[in-house]
TrEMBL record:
Residues 95-322 form the ABC transmembrane type-1 domain. The keyword Kinase does not apply. It is found in: Cell membrane. It is a multi-pass membrane protein. This is ABC transporter [Isoptericola variabilis 225]. Keywords: Cell membrane, Membrane, Transmembrane, Transmembrane helix, Transport. The lineage of its organism: Bacteria, Bacillati, Actinomycetota, Actinomycetes, Mycobacteriales.
Length: 331
């Protein structure tokens, strides 16, 4: 088991080193000039050349990559060409909004996945309708679902807002940066209610595809468990169906679904950027959207590294937990 953990951690570290190399290579072949973007179009060529020399951009590429990799290890992601602030400072400002949206969406995804799996496996009334809606929603690209959601629930029905985190003035901005939690800490239930209405639509859009993937795996596992001997025995001794499902079926079927949940949580890091752009959510997606038109490569690379690190860490932890739960995996 210890050897497996070391192997997984080593593989994760190797992946991150390769990723930094790819990002560094892309930066070298980018069409824009970061120094010209940083200094402005009116800067003279002499000032541009002096700045390039000062920043070490005339050094050999291996030297520049070593410096870039050392900075990443130390948490130094460079300076944003757009904001003029360290990228890590910008990320700290935008991460809470993205984290709040992702956590909420993941919770919604788990709820919908369980409903999808249990309702379809147990053939509950209305299960087919829910399964059809979730299948259609999960199969359509998230940006199309987001646009459709805005048109239906904001423009025509007027039930939910379309953009932003809150429309209440004077909303608290600390201590966690998670607006719903901060509102609860400060006793601002008006902000809490308003923040939830803003969260519901983008979080549901983000949750559809993961819910479908997790639900399918859980449904397959439930159907397999339902044919096992101990379930037949539970029915023979007279246990009611709800007790069998909650105490025996779901509990013994959740393992494969947890593995899929870990994978889907990592994949949500990519989808969240698209969803945030559609809903003008002030998170990492909006930060990237504003950085791309001005060729702010340090900001773009910082977001990619952050999300990739989260993805790799989550999948590494899932692999280790799977091996801990089933020793056959370690072999």
């Amino acid at each position: 088991m210890f050897a497996l953990i070391l192997k997984r951690i080593g593989a994760a570290a190797l992946i991150m080193v390769i990723l930094t190399g790819v990002l560094f290579w892309l930066q070298q072949f980018a069409t824009g000039d970061p120094i010209r973007t940083r200094l402005g179009a009116g800067a003279s060529q002499e000032v541009v050349d002096a700045t390039r020399e000062q920043l070490g951009l005339n050094d050999p590429l291996p030297v520049q990559y070593g410096r870039f990799l050392a900075g990443v290890v130390q948490g130094d992601l460079g300076v944003s060409l757009r904001t003029g602030r360290p990228v890590q400072t910008d990320l700290a400002m935008f991460i809470p909004a993205t984290a709040e949206l992702t956590i909420t969406a993941f919770g919604i995804a788990l709820i919908m996945a369980v409903l999808f799996a249990v309702a379809s496996a147990m053939r509950w009334p209305g299960g087919r309708v829910f399964r059809a809606l979730l299948t259609v929603g999960g199969a359509i690209p998230s940006f199309l679902v987001a646009i459709a959601g805005i048109i239906v629930f904001y423009k025509y029905l007027g039930w939910l807002p379309a953009t932003g985190r809150s429309s209440v003035s004077g909303a608290p901005d600390g201590p966690t940066g998670l607006l719903t939690l901060d509102a609860l800490v400060h006793g601002r239930f008006d902000v809490l209610s308003n923040a939830w209405t803003h969260l519901l639509l983008p979080a549901t859009v983000l949750a559809l595809a993961p819910a479908l993937a997790i639900g399918r795996v859980l449904r397959s596992s439930i159907l397999t468990t339902l044919t096992s001997d101990h379930i037949r025995t539970a029915r023979v001794v007279g246990l009611n169906e709800m007790s069998i499902v909650t105490r025996h079926v779901v509990r013994n079927s959740v393992g494969p679904a947890l593995s899929m949940a870990g994978l889907q949580l990592g994949l949500m890091f990519a989808a969240v950027l698209v969803v945030e752009s559609v809903f003008a959510w002030p998170g990492l997606g909006q930060y990237v959207a504003l950085s791309i038109p001005v060729d702010d490569f340090p900001a773009i690379a910082g977001v990619v590294l952050l999300l990739a690190t989260g993805y790799v860490v989550i999948n590494t932890v899932v692999d280790i937990l799977q091996a801990a739960a089933d020793p056959r995996i370690a072999l």
